[in-house]
Amino acid sequence: MDVLNKFRSTVTSTMSQLSTVLPGNPVTREYEATKHIASAGVGLLWKIYSGYKKSTQQSASIFVLEKRQLDKWSKTERENIIEVVKKGVAQLARLKHPQVLTVQHTLEESRESLAFATEPVFCSLANVLGKMENTPQPLPKSLQDYNLFDIDIKYGLMQLGQGLAFLHNDAKLLHHNLCPENVVINEQGAWKIFGFDFCSQSINPVDPNPTWPSWEYKVDVHPWAQPTLDYLAPESGCDHIQIKASDMYSLGVLIFAIYNKGNAPLQSNHEWSTYKRNLQEMKYNTPKISIVDAALRDPVKLLLSFRPEDRPDEHEFLKIEYFNDVGVKTLNYLDSLFQWDNLQKSQFYKGLPQIMEKLPHRICLKRILPCLVKDCVNPVMIPFVLPNIFYVCENCTKDEFVNHILPCLKPIMKVHEPVQVPFIFLQKMELLLKLAPLEDLKSDILPMLYKTLELDSKPVQETCLSVIPSLATLVEGPSMKNALLPRIKRLCLSTSDLSVRVKCLVCIGKLIEYLDRWLVLDDIIPFLPQIPSKDPAVIMGILGVYRIILSHKKMYITKETMALSILPFLIPMCIENTLTLNQFNVLISIVKEMINSVETEHRAKLQQLNEQHRSISNSLTVENGTTTKSNGLTNEFQFESYVEKPLMQISGSNEITNNLSFNYEKSKTKQSQDIPFHTFQQDFTLTPSVEKSNKNNPVPKDLTSSLIDSNINQISWSNQMKPTTSSLSQSKSMGFENKSTGLQGRFSGFENNSVNPQTKPMSLHNSANNWNDLWIKQEETQSQVKQLSLSDINDLLS
């Protein structure tokens, strides 16, 4: 709450200041001033405000001179000062050069102020050197922490030299008051010439050797209405001569002041007499310049020469060894980048990261980054520019990234050709996740990923699939279902590249944790059998997805899903010859695990159902009820060894394949043991035994009697269950209806070859009268039955 109150008070204070300064000034119709940031100009009279143009929202700076600052002087002095500053702004607006401050809106005057708008400005060089008149209090943190690096000074002085070369040779103009107050540093850190209040136009501009009118310092005029004495050349002050060397002298004093905390070598304190005395000393004693950088001492010593002819001109100054620096050359190259072709630019960008390693972060952020962004309008150059932008990001804070870099990256995120552009974004996704706000990740980066999945480039697709899981927490449910998963599934099904398909499966496996159960059941499990590949790598990927689903605590997969959807898909894979032994072991272990799960769950369910059926049967039946029937079938088919035993324990074996052997010889030698269930899938035939019977052999079983007994049991059971509809329906559900019972199906061969058609099993759906008739016939038949010999059995089955 305290922070909010402080912010509110700051905004209120700023708005109140602006409301007292700018009312009625025409600049406010087009520009909005937001914050007081610095000061500049003669006497630092100009207050600099950050702001923007209302129509385009383009950033700008508004220079404001409050007339009330001049109230303590006489009217004449006030008028003189206002006249010179108005002249300076008018001249500034006519000059167009990279090293001259750019005016966006010309000077406007109201009763309270003068104002004009320029390109975005950070502060003046005087502010950086410690002169804080007319600056905001407290100082902005950015200004408090601002320190001049060597590269700042080197390139700044080069820019001033280039600006003076333009003024002297092209504009035929002398500045006549070059000092820290009239050097402005823009938002990118470039040094711009400002303050043309006392500039002088050449008398003969077309002459190769132009001349300028004489000028005389007036003691009775206010110091702010005249050039600063500390930076005034000796020939201008004493001999009233204005030449190009006069500006070079001012440049030498400015260089000395940079290394001397903003103080000139000879300070006059606006006193003409002191200035003249300092000039006399200067004839015989050269100022001590040991505080200046060693590489600059000799040039500065020449610039401060009393004799104008000893001073180097602007071209000679720009050629000194001091500027032969890789950082200076890099910045200079960036400023003239528009002059080079794409091949030259690409070669430069490839080596730029090695140069940026040696430069301060502020230089990279404020000076290099804007130049890089300008070249992003050319899609062909983006793959060369983007790595350098991300290099700058690596040393950024979140605020710097949001304010300076993210607005530049958002338009580039929509560029998908060439494919190197999205590929670079994917490679730097970890950095973006670290610096970008959550809302920007959702609104800009996720759509870029969705679009990237549709690009026809294997490296891009693989990289995108590996990046997506790290962003899964940002994807909301509807987007996951309707945007992300459909694209991954479509890519997995349509791609012809094995590695991309495997990457899709790995990506899906990593996304399982972030999906809800119903989405997995509806989208993922039905999708896996659709994959058109039986390659071992794909099979292992599918198994990995199944393993994650089965082991995840919130993914409960029912036995119906496993039995009907998963196992019918996996079991045929077990006989793939392309699998290695280890891969087969993994596959078969997962299949066994699912079968065990189905077995355990379904056995428990059947046990519950059987208990319910048994309790109902006990109350409605007598001795020959359902239990006798089912037990009879079990004994008839010799299923005793399978009853109440789990699948993994049948016949006392640990391996299912051993239990389900199809070897006829083994089954023949183990007649006294359980008969495997799958043996009944073969053709069922009876072969008479050729072994000699001994007295201990059992008497052959009367098959006709057995069949008749079975039918009688069915009739008896049906009659007992007939009055109860629910009992009949329960018997159907338990598998005793003729259509579903295994009896008729298992012995279909007997029906075709039977001699006596009356021995065919009877349907449970016959009427009561038919049952009674059948009962009488069966009793008569049974009374006529005699014991059959072995030959009779053979005749019966032939």
Automatic annotation (TrEMBL):
The signal peptide stretch is none
**Which CDD domains has this protein been placed in?**
PK_SCY1_like (cd14011)
| Ranges where the Protein kinase domain occurs | 34-323
Q: Which SMART domains match?
A: S_TKc (SM00220)
Against InterPro entries, the record matches this protein to:
ARM-like, ARM-type_fold, CIK-Related_Protein, Kinase-like_dom_sf, Prot_kinase_dom
Highest rank taxon of the organism: Eukaryota
Checking PROSITE patterns in the record gives: PROTEIN_KINASE_DOM
Q: Which GO terms describe its molecular function?
A: ATP binding; protein kinase activity
What family is this? Belongs to the protein kinase superfamily.
Its name, as the record gives it, is SCY1-like protein 2
Gene that encodes it: SCYL2_0
